[in-house]
Amino acid sequence: MNVPFRAIISDLDGTLLNGDHKIGQFTIETLSKLSQKGVDIYFATGRNLPDVKHIISKVDVKEAMLVTSNGARANFLSGERVISHYLPETLAFELMNLPFDPTKVCVNSYQGDEWFINIDLEQLKKYHKDSGFSYQVVDFSKHHGEQTEKVFFIGKTLADLQPLEQKIRETYGDDVYVVYSTPQCLEVMNKNVSKANALSELTQRRGYGLKDCIVFGDGMNDFEMLSQAGKGCIMANADPRLKASLPQHEIIGNHKHEAVASYLRAIMGII
């Protein structure tokens, strides 16, 4: 059967995952059918690898490509690590210890397969309830910068994070990639990192490029991969800044209704 794209690339939260932050059965069946027809499946997310491996384990695929921590790491499902870009240790430690209002902002890091945070924030656990992946509370002033894939700040509002963003860009702008995954989450990675950069390398290894792929996303950290894709689709629930920055891209349904799976079934010719 001829299908219009060699691969499907999707963000997870706010895109492929449903309103319960899980991969729905309709989506599982859709991706499994497409994989059986020879379509490659990629997840490209800000989540860490252990979290993502649990999600993809529900889909019937022989192989998949997992881009995690916004492109700081990339693995084939079979286990091969293709990309690994850490922040320099001294820089990571400095980022972890930037001053901010602790009543409005918290700091996190993904380091290796671990997640660290400066406070116990119960509401974050709902995003990872299905996988069981969770954080460890640490004092970052006594922590370390080893194997840091990203440092990220969660604020109550976008306005709470903007002074931090300005400080980071002014101080470290040439050495880091700074992006919002949601309007309340500011993320900092190595300067060479983005989902698109990682995906370009992975797709080349499979014998094609991003122009041969259909891509789905909802956040500013999806901008590059959406703009380079053969077809880029933006979720109805996406960050308004993403919609404004890619005005020619098609807007599809809401992630809560498993809109990615519905769209794929319509264009890929599966029932």
TrEMBL record:
Q: Does the keyword Transport apply?
A: no
According to its UniProt record, what is one Pfam family this protein matches?
Hydrolase_3
Q: Which SUPFAM superfamilies match?
A: HAD-like
Q: Which cofactor does it need?
A: Mg(2+)
Which UniProt keywords are listed?
Hydrolase, Magnesium, Metal-binding
Q: Which NCBIfam families match?
A: Cof-subfamily, HAD-SF-IIB
Q: What name has this protein been given in UniProt?
A: Cof-type HAD-IIB family hydrolase
